[in-house]
């Protein structure tokens, strides 16, 4: 926990340094300081650097728009960020476009990804990549979320395992494995959810 707090103190120092640098109009290296130049960057610079540095966003693995939207809402609702409701969509668009999932790191499209009509458990890794699940999960090691292997073990003899995983993917959740929150993924289709659940439940 104390490590996290040190991070926030460090973040405050970075913000302080950035304010000075901007006043002097010094070009900062792209990986520090402000958000990438794009439509909406001014909102992100105004709203997201109040409490922590841009690294909190930059160091996230590329994430789908649903992740960024729920991340903005989490800052708003859980941490009290003073983000007006009418800026949430613009921020989600901006973050998905600049820090989103796309082929070869290209900006993600504004719309939700085209749903796959049919999917099999062997598509699990592909789907987990498509929706950014690997940003928080690994098959054998706990990351932000539990290891898929541990989820499979927990649900080994639970008849309602599919129902619970379906619910977790579409609605998100927390408190079953710890205090961390999994954001909802409403855009994952029924076929994809089934394939992901079967793949996760088969993880060893
Ligand atoms: C009122 C303060 C505040 C504001 C404003 C704020 N955040 Fe945060 N943010 C936090 C706190 C507190 C944490 C958790 C810090 C920790 O665990 O070390 C956090 C963590 C994060 C993380 C890391 C993942 C996570 O969920 O813990 C991301 C990504 C993030 N913020 C994005 C944003 C974005 C994008 C904005 C602007 C829309 C923003 N933040 C504005 C307080 C804020
Ligand atoms: C931002 C981080 C994050 C992302 C992205 C994420 N998860 Fe999670 N996931 C978590 C956390 C944290 C938990 C533990 C929540 C809890 O304690 O209830 C979790 C739990 C789970 C569980 C266990 C549910 C249960 O009933 O025990 C499953 C299954 C799961 N995730 C699947 C997925 C899939 C599939 C994706 C991609 C579509 C995904 N996760 C994306 C963080 C994430």
Task: Walk me through the structure.
- The protein is mostly helical and 204 residues long.
- It folds into 2 domains: 31-114, Cytochrome Bc1 Complex, Chain D, domain 2, CATH 1.10.760.10; 121-201, Cytochrome Bc1 Complex, Chain D, domain 2, CATH 1.10.760.10.
- 47% of the residues lie in helices and 0% in strands.
- It has helices spanning 2-23, 41-48, 55-58, 65-77, 88-99, 124-130, 148-154, 161-171, 190-201.
- Helix 6 crosses helix 9 (190-201).
- The longest helix has 22 residues, at 2-23.
- It starts with a helix and ends with a helix.
- The structure holds heme C (2 copies).
- Can you tell me the CATH architecture of the largest domain? Orthogonal Bundle
Strands, total number: 0
Which regions have little confidence, pLDDT < 50, spanning 5+ residues?
Answer: 1-31, 103-112
- Global outline: elongated
- Biggest sheet features: none
The CATH class of the largest domain, by name, is: Mainly Alpha
Q: How many domains, in number, for the residues? A: 2
- Fraction of residues in helix: 40-55%
Structural class: mainly alpha
Topology as H/E string? HHHHHHHHH
Task: Kindly identify the CATH topology of the largest domain.
Answer: Cytochrome Bc1 Complex, Chain D, domain 2
- Percent in strands: under 5%
Tell me which ligands are bound. Answer: heme C
Q: How many H/I helices?
A: 9
Distance between the termini: 30 Å
Q: What is the overall pLDDT average?
A: 80
CATH-wise, what's the superfamily of the largest domain?
Cytochrome c-like domain
